[in-house]
Every structure is written in structure tokens, then in C-alpha cells.
Amino acid sequence: MRVHNRIAYAFLAPYLLIFATFWLWPIISSFLISFQNTRVNPWRFAPSMNWGRLVGDPAFYNALYNTLIILVIQVPVMIALATVMAVFLNSPLLKARPLYRFAFFVPVVVGEVAYAAVFRLMFSADFGIINKIIGTVGISPVSWFDNGTAAMALLIMAVTWRWAGYNAIIILAGLQSIPGDVYEAATLDRVGKVQQFFHITLPLLKPIILFCIVLSVIGTMQLFAEPFLITNRGGPGGATETLGLLLYRQGFTSLNFGYASAIAYTIAALAVAISLLNLFFGRETK
Amino acid sequence: MAGLALTNVIKRFGALQVVHGANLDIEDGEFVVFVGPSGCGKSTLLRMIAGLEDVSGGEIAIAGNVVNDVEPSERHIAMVFQSYALYPHMTVRKNLSFGLTMNGNPKADTQRRVAHAADILQINELMDRRPGQLSGGQRQRVAIGRAIVREPQVFLFDEPLSNLDAELRVQMRVEISKLHKQLGTTMIYVTHDQTEAMTLADKIVVLRTGRIEQVGAPLDLYDDPANQFVAGFIGSPKMNFLKATIHAVGQEGVTAALIADPSVRLTLPISSRPDIGSPVILGIRPEHFSDAGTGEADLTVAVHVAEHLGHTSYVYAGVSGEPLIIERPESRHAGDQKTLTVGLPAKRCFLFDAEGERLR
């Protein structure tokens, strides 16, 4: 039995080695680094330096504020949209269903740089199609990249476009697991389609929607590519700088790994806290 | 309460026709059972009555009103599904009251109806549980309760007992029968189990491949089946069928000789006049064999195996390769011998032509 175990661990060893080196150790290491002054050479143990700075850093609060704004606006909008898309995809009246399913999912597989470039072109103040379209209904052109609020709106739209389809596919799987005869029973109970949606579909989808929210919260807390690529490194003037971007700036531009590690742990802690809150408020009442 | 009338009802799924012109009258307060093998169209017919499937042709009338284009919710029917179809996130109480609440029924009346249904089905102690916390039988009661609170004109049951174990099925069968007596409402019940059909129904509708084969009271179908299919479907164990040919046609009736043993000839007092030599099927139920020498003919069979149920025994036997089941009441040694000779009482035998139609 023991020999068997040793052979099993020998087979697992390459994976465990890579897992420990590139996953486990960085997690431990960055926690230790967050207590170091990494602006001197060699690094010195300074437990309150990075964490102390975090508490009073306006750049951190700005990034936190931006991230929470995206979280509060984008996640609910996207999940609502994804639910509507899933219901649409699940409709028996829909023809060419695989085509729509593909169309909704395809943003996820598009490369971040490519989609960011397309969004920059579409939202260009001078020759972007979006300003042309809103111009046709009499709205004056918006400086999407120069106006902080507009840039934030653009970011929210981009992230929603990219991830709504992905969530819709997950919610669709949940919808398809609801037995059809429950709806038939409701129909015979004289419950209308809209009432069925709010009183049967939504409550039964709750665990799936919660799962999507938790995934989205984690994703939003780590949001980096969109503000980096679309709104030009969190511009204008830090108006779209997220925690992920601040971490990158501190770690890989200023090479201040201690502070970046403290930010990383804060992001992780916030993601866990918000996700737990979600799960707590969404739990089944016994 | 209301009666129903199906007139030449047809159902097609694309090019495939699954119900072929069903005609049926159901009296007010009657308990009607649709019975037939899988795929015979019985559930489809029930779902058409409920309005969950469109009618491709013909008319369905409830209480004299054609309901082909009436929404399911407006047909004043309630349905109990095979899978129960309870709302999994609601308590039993909410499951019962949900439809009424959504329709703005006065709260006091809803409470009264829910309490009444709970009393009838004895589910008072389950009211705050969810379906996931109930056994199969309890869920079935709740599903029936949900139908009761609607106070419908017609109850529809779609194989409601098929997910229950044998013991519970018998218990629920009795309860559904009691419920029908108590409420007096028209009930239509779909099953593939002929025992359920026989025990519950005022009227049985036997279906095969989308066609109604015979309609009648359970014992009428048992005693007087219209064709070989109904004869084989109604009764358990099923009727034995032996190949035979017409040996003679005379004033006393038709004499058939078994192909398996041509010396066994039996004259049935029927007025049909089939051609001599034409192939027929002789049908006799396992319970209708008599002791050797007491019927109009004797048949000797090879005994394969015997099942002793205490009060009776079933002998599985064969004659020249044709299988037979013979019931021998109070006979605990029926399987001891290699052969068994039994009597064939002519008045208990049926003749069917080559197409399976009854020769009368």
C-alpha cells in the first residue's frame, strides 16, 4: 500500500513541484514581501510601511472607488442583461439558436488587445461610429477618452460586452435544468408568463446567478486589461484607474513590489469579503 | 364539474400523426382511465385536453364548450403530473396557494381551500416543508392537493403513480379512488398499468398507436374485449393466445382446432361464419382453465416453471412451442409434474381472426 502511495506521489511530483513553485510560493512570498520595504536594496523588513501607506494613499482610494463603481454598476447590469439573453436563447420560438449562442459567446474568445483596439476606434471622438450614431439623434459628440465619467461609462460598456455572453451561457445551463412541467403546472395554475419569470425562473436561477455574481466580482476586482488598453492606462487622469492597474503601476512600473503585494492582498481580501456577503445574503432560507 | 366530448380529435407532430381521430364522450363526474402501452398517444390526448398541446384536427369540448382555442388556464382543469412538477423553492403551503395568490383570490378563501385540501390529503404536518424534504408519496399528495385547491371542473392525472414503489402505489390508488368519491369531479387518468385502470375506472379507454381500440366499463372490457389487443392488455397475467384453424362451422357454432395439438377441438357458440381452414387465434385467460375433464376439451401442456403465490399458483407452460400461463388456485404442487392437463371451457374462450378482430 505504501509502495503504491509512493508511486502515486512520484507521478504527481512534477505537477506538485510546478504548483508549489509558481502558485503556492508566490502567494506566500507576496504576503511576506508586503511587510518589506522594497524601495531600498537590499529589501528591509518594515511591517507597517506598505500597509500604513495603503491606509492613507489617495491613489489607492481613487482606484478602490473606481473599482467599486464598476462593481456596483457593471455587475448588476451585466447579470441582468445576461439573464435576458439566456431567456432569449432558451426560447422555443428562437430559430438558428446555435448561431446566437456562438454570437453571444464569441466576445470571450476575442483577444483583449484586438477588442480594445476596436473599442478605441468605435469610440474615437472624431471619427468613431458611436459618436456618429448618437449624432444622428441630436446628441453632441462625447469625448470618450478625455471625460472621466464618459471613460468610466465606456469601460463599463466594454466589460459588459465582453462578459455578458459568457454569463448568459452559464445562466442558460441553469435555465435548461428547470423542468418544463413546472412551467406547465404554473400555466394551468393561471400564472402568467411574466409572473412565472419572477416567481419561478428567477428564484430557481438564484444559485446560478449568485455563482455568476461571485465570478464577476472576482473578475472586476482584478480588472486590468480594459483600463490599461482602452482608456489608456486608467485615464484620463486616473479616472478609470482600477486596483488591478494600480497594482501593476506600483509593481511593474515603479518596481515597488512590497506595496504592490499589499494591494494584491487587499484585492483578494475584498473579493473574498464581497463574495461571502453575496453568498450570505443569497443563501437559501431553511 | 363538467363532462367532456372529443370529436374526431387528431394530433400531428410535423408529418407524424400520433392521434388518429379520437371520439369519446365522458360523463360529468365520471372517472375515465386512458390505458395503453408506451407511445399509444394517451398522454398526448390528455395534454390536448389540458391545452398543453395544440389540437391538429377535430374538437375538444368541456361542459359543452369547444375549447380548442381556449388557453389552458381558462379551461377550468387541474393536472397532476407524472413528475409531480411541484415548485421546488416553495413550501408545501406556498405550492398549494401559489396559483390562487397570483390570481388575486381573496386571502381568506385561499387559506380555506388550502386547509381543506390539506385535511383531505392529511398533509397538515408537511405544510412548511419544501418538496425536496418530502418522500415520493408525500410529493404526490401535494401535487394532488395543488389540483384540489383550484376546485376544477375536471382533474387530469398523467401517470401519477408511476414513480412510486409498489406498496405506495396501491395505497395512493385507493386514496385517489376515495378522493373521486368524495369530490365527485370528472377525472381523467392516464396509465400504462392495466391494474390501475381496472381498479380505478368507471370507464376505460384502451388506446393503441393513437387509436381508441375500445371504450367500456372495466369488467365489460375484461368479459367482452373487442379485439386481441384489448383482450391481451386487460387482465393480469395476460390472456393466452393459441394458434388455431377453423375446423367446422355448424349450427352449434364454430369449431376450432389448435395448431399445436390438432386433436384439441373446441366448439364456440358464436354466430360468425369464418371460412373452414382459415387461421384464427383462440384466447383464454390464465384463470379460466378448468380441471381436466370439466371443459369442452382437454389440453395437455409441458410445465416449465410454477410460481406459488400462496392463494394461487401460476404455471408457466408450453404446447408445441406456444407459451401459456395457467392459474391453478389452491394448487401448491402444480409445478411438480412434467405435464399438466387442463380443461378448456368453451364459454370462457374467445376467437380472433387473423387481423386480431373478435369473432362473435
TrEMBL record, chain A:
Q: Which UniProt keywords apply?
A: Cell membrane, Membrane, Transmembrane, Transmembrane helix, Transport
Positions of transmembrane segments: 7-28, 63-90, 102-123, 150-175, 196-218, 257-281
Location in the cell reads:
Cell membrane
Q: Does the keyword NAD apply?
A: no
Regarding the membrane, this protein is recorded as: Multi-pass membrane protein
Q: Main location per UniProt?
A: membrane
Where do the ABC transmembrane type-1 domain residues begin and end? 64-278
Q: Which family does the similarity line name?
A: Belongs to the binding-protein-dependent transport system permease family.
Protein name stated in the entry: Lactose/L-arabinose transport system permease protein
Organism encoding this protein: Neorhizobium huautlense
Lineage of the native species? Answer: Bacteria, Pseudomonadati, Pseudomonadota, Alphaproteobacteria, Hyphomicrobiales
Automatic annotation (TrEMBL), chain B:
Q: Which residues form the ABC transporter domain?
A: 4-234
Q: Mind telling me which PROSITE patterns this protein's record contains?
A: ABC_TRANSPORTER_1, ABC_TRANSPORTER_2
Coiled-coil positions are none
Q: How does it sit in the membrane?
A: Peripheral membrane protein
User: What is the first-listed, main subcellular location in coarse terms?
Assistant: membrane
**Compartments, as annotated in UniProt:** Cell inner membrane
Q: Which InterPro entries match?
A: AAA+_ATPase, ABC_transporter-like_ATP-bd, ABC_transporter-like_CS, ABC_transpr_MalK-like, ABC_transpr_MalK/UgpC-like, Mo/tungstate-bd_C_term_dom, NA-bd_OB-fold, OB_MalK-like
Q: Which UniProt keywords apply?
A: ATP-binding, Cell inner membrane, Cell membrane, Membrane, Nucleotide-binding, Transport
GO terms for molecular function, please?
ATP binding
Query: Pfam families, from UniProt?
Result: ABC_tran, OB_MalK
The record's section on SMART domains has: AAA
Family membership noted in the UniProt record: Belongs to the ABC transporter superfamily.
NCBIfam families (UniProt xref)? PRK11650.1
PANTHER family in alphabetical order? MALTODEXTRIN IMPORT ATP-BINDING PROTEIN MSMX, MALTOSE_MALTODEXTRIN IMPORT ATP-BINDING PROTEIN MALK
- Which named protein is this? Lactose/L-arabinose transport system ATP-binding protein
User: Lineage of this protein's species?
Assistant: Bacteria, Pseudomonadati, Pseudomonadota, Alphaproteobacteria, Hyphomicrobiales
